[in-house]
Amino acid sequence: MSLRSRHLLGLEGMPADDINLILDTAISFKEVLSRRIPKVPTLRGMTIVNLFYEPSTRTRISFELAEKRLSADTVNFSASGSSVSKGETLKDTMQNIEAMKIDMVVIRHSAAGSPHYLTTCCQSIVINAGDGAHEHPTQGLLDIFTMREKYGKIEGLKVVIVGDIKHSRVARSNIWGLMTLGAKVSVCGPPTLLPVEMEKFGIKVHDNLDQALDGADIVNVLRLQRERQQSGLLPSLREYSRYWGITKDRLGKLNENFTIMHPGPMNRGVEISSEVAEGPYSVILPQVTNGVAVRMAVLYLLSGGRGKVDE
Fold it and tell me: What is the CATH number of the domain that holds 97?
């Protein structure tokens, strides 16, 4: 069992068979996580470097846990306190790390295309943990896994992504993956936070939240990047919350068996109310749990699927 690509750089162009293979494999790894000792020796002997140039909580810890659950040797790199502060380039940093004999690198970087660039200057397997405003493929996969876990399918589901679509790597990975699997995707947000010509992606674009929510199965709420308000793209956080915030009063527009999602971190009272975030229809914490299983599946499959999942 292995993926067609040697790396995981994004969900754009990834075949449906590969996406489904990751999701199916993650089911087995989620069972592993429920054991008294949630660990398997599947990647014993492999060394994985987490190369993070941006702050992260969920993604970084999730990858580190996934690696440890698979018995891989893990090394964590942080740009602060490293030779990057002395002017070392990404290429030199990676080649020096690779000279220490590693097998995989998980990279998060503010520059879009950084994971793709690494594949041209190193031999290790590269996994994109978020590159600028481009993609965040494992977040997209865990979101899709969470949807499929609840509904048993993706095809035909009506999914609305709400918030700062223009600058969101999570939105892009969700859009590509969901459309590949046959979901009906739409986006909603302030006009200043919607990409130009978004309709060319084959999705509906709304700037009216109530219209966007009408008949939807799933609402994936994105974090409002507060710095966008300072750059003049938003008049105020209060106005954003009034027109595009997900509150209990708006939930009546959704289908009966609806789901609320959020990749985190949340700005409570801005893009989502606490009442909604903690409601019975929220799967925000299950998303975090599923993230470990999905990342275990990705690591396992990119390693070539050596050995049994549960051995």
Answer: 3.40.50.1370
